[in-house]
Amino acid sequence: MDWGMQNRLNRLIGPDGHCFFLPIDHGYFQGPTRCLEKPGETIKPILPYCDALFVTRGILRSSVDPGLDKPVILRVSGGTSMVGQDLANEVLTTSIEEILRLNAAAVGISIFVGTDYERQTLLSLADLVNECEDYGIPVMAVTAVGKEVGQKDARYLAMACRIAAELGAKVVKTYWCDKDFDKVVEGCPVPVVMAGGPKCETELEVFEFVYDGMQKGAIGINLGRNVWQNPRPVAVARALRAIVHEKATPKEAHQIFEETKSG
């Protein structure tokens, strides 16, 4: 692997091989999002516990301090909205020049396997890999399934992750599933990180699925709403970091959450 590519991946993924990415890119398709009305203020106390920030170029420029010492994963696909006909109808939105100009450590793009726009989004991934490889920039593929996330099983997720890896993604972001998630990870030859999916009812639910996914081979998480929409986001972030980087159990993580919450 080229030095630049490996260096960027090393900035994103810790020496232990694990990572905690914080996504705040939700507004690119759903507009103003609760707790992200002022993204710069939302992320400031949380970032110390995260390894990288997943963000669009607009919010990066308007709301993130250029003195940020965390690597940036730049969201580079879009073109649809919650009120449009189909969220899967995404295209590339950001040029390689912009990616370089913003000093991104990596880029992220969604693919929609099994939809009417499957071919379009997969070819966008391939085109992005072609461009980014020339500059040593890792591509993270996001196996987006939108509102149907609860209907997708391990077989579907494994297929989507493998296709993303086959097309050149260096990391794949996908959803955790309660059955056979280990097979999803085993079938993907590049690292897998877990998305948050729908907001969980309790903190313990979050800690349990993250712990389970890590035990089954995921290298980390890319969680947003379950962190910054929580009334105690710093406590959640500290607890999640303990699971990801310190091998804490859900019970231990919940104890960290309770202690931080009341501290």
Structure characterization notes:
The protein has 263 residues and is of the alpha/beta class. The chain has a single domain (3-201, 219-224), classed as Alpha-Beta Barrel (TIM Barrel). Helices cover 42% and strands 16% of the residues. The chain contains twelve helices and ten strands. The chain has helices at 3-12, 27-30, 39-43, 57-63, 96-101, 118-133, 154-166, 181-186, 203-215, 225-228, 233-246, 250-262, and strands spanning 19-23, 52-56, 72-75, 77-78, 91-92, 106-111, 139-143, 171-175, 192-195, 220-222. Strands 1-2-3-6-7-8-9-10 form an eight-stranded parallel barrel, surrounded by six helices. The chain has a two-stranded antiparallel sheet with strand order 4-5. Helix 9 (203-215) packs parallel to helix 11, helix 9 packs antiparallel against helix 12 (250-262) and helix 11 packs antiparallel against helix 12. The chain is globular, with a radius of gyration of 17 Å. The model has no long low-confidence stretch (mean pLDDT 95).
> What is the average of the pLDDT values?
95
- Largest sheet composition: 8 strands, parallel, barrel
Query: How many strand elements?
Result: 10
- Determine the CATH superfamily: Aldolase class I
For the terminal residues, how far apart are their CA atoms? Answer: 45 Å
Low-confidence stretches: none
| CATH class wording | Alpha Beta
Helix content: 40-55%
Task: Please write out the topology.
Blueprint: H1 3-12, E1 19-23, H2 27-30, H3 39-43, E2 52-56, H4 57-63, E3 72-75, E4 77-78, E5 91-92, H5 96-101, E6 106-111, H6 118-133, E7 139-143, H7 154-166, E8 171-175, H8 181-186, E9 192-195, H9 203-215, E10 220-222, H10 225-228, H11 233-246, H12 250-262
Parallel strand pairs: 1-2, 1-10, 2-3, 3-6, 6-7, 7-8, 8-9, 9-10
Antiparallel strand pairs: 4-5
Helix pairs in contact: 9-11, 9-12, 11-12
